[in-house]
TrEMBL record:
SUPFAM superfamilies: Cysteine proteinases. The lineage of its organism: Bacteria, Pseudomonadati, Bacteroidota, Cytophagia, Cytophagales. Residues 160-220 form the Transglutaminase-like domain. Coiled coil: none annotated. This is Transglutaminase-like domain-containing protein. It comes from the Bacteria. Pfam families: Transglut_core.
């Protein structure tokens, strides 16, 4: 699978940025080749954040600046749900490194009464674990309208629970808040997905049930397709692909995703 993103900026004053544009190296995702280019060329440094995401840091010069990132990776489709389905884990049995994924975060106000009432309405009567998560995913898919331009960087899960219209970032925030309210560890993941009607960088969520992480996508009718993961964290504040500290405007973003022939063959499904 291949993914490519081209960000075009107009920079009005030297602007420091941090980016998450290089793919994670992890189980189930083998990076064959990748590229990261800033034009005009400027030096940049790299570091790894507290979630293990590879990050880049630089200062953009004044003028037109283009940032291009490409990746080719060998990936598998979303892990099938085993039989029996993954079970709910008591908070006391959770590993230390997933505990922060049951806490409220900036965009996922999982501790609010209104979120609690919605979580119970959707999944309070369902067997704890996978079935609750799938019920939440399905409810969001069927009750929230996907539309660009109606939400922004300040929109939270609570906002979406009321407006019920937004984009993948918003769908994911609401799913995370509802799952965490039920004490199910949930994180936000961003990257490339081959099955998108309007090609863009994408956000979905992963839950920790039965001792492992599983992928869910509220935008899709059912969770499917091949994905290249770029980053994961508590919510969009942790996985912003570009964060700027200065005077620059994003002019355009162009995204391409190509599923290679060997991956799309029936033998690989």
């Amino acid at each position: 699978m291949k993914g490519k993103s081209v960000f075009s900026y107009e920079v009005y004053a030297p602007t420091t940025i941090t980016t998450m544009l290089r793919p994670r190296r992890q189980e189930g995702q083998s990076i064959i080749r990748e590229g990261f280019d800033i034009s005009p060329a400027v030096p940049f440094s790299e570091y790894t954040d507290i979630y293990g995401n590879p990050c880049q840091r630089t200062i953009l010069p004044v003028g037109q600046v283009t940032i291009t990132t490409e990746v080719e990776a060998q990936v598998s489709p979303a892990r099938p749900i085993p039989d029996p389905e993954p079970h709910y884990m008591l908070v006391g049995d959770l590993p230390d490194d997933v505990m922060h994924y049951i806490l409220p975060s900036r965009y996922c106000e999982s501790d609010l009464h209104e979120i609690n009432m919605l979580a119970l309405q959707i999944a309070g009567h369902i067997t704890p674990g996978y079935q609750q998560v799938e019920a939440i995913r399905s409810w969001i898919h069927h009750n929230v309208t996907y539309q660009y331009g109606v939400t922004d960087a300040s929109t939270t899960a609570l906002d979406l629970s009321r407006s019920r219209i937004g984009v993948c970032r918003d769908f994911t925030h609401l799913a995370i808040a509802l799952c965490r309210n039920l004490c199910i560890p949930t994180r936000m993941t961003v990257g490339y997905l081959d099955k998108l009607k309007d090609m863009d960088l994408h956000a979905w969520f992963e839950v920790y049930i039965g001792g492992d992480w599983y992928t869910f996508d509220a935008v899709q009718e059912k969770t499917e397709g091949y994905r290249i993961e770029i980053a994961h964290g508590r919510d969009a504040a942790d996985v912003a692909m570009i964060t700027q500290y200065g005077n620059a405007t994003l002019q355009s973003l162009h995204v391409e995703v190509e599923l290679l022939e060997a991956e799309s063959s029936p033998a690989n499904h």
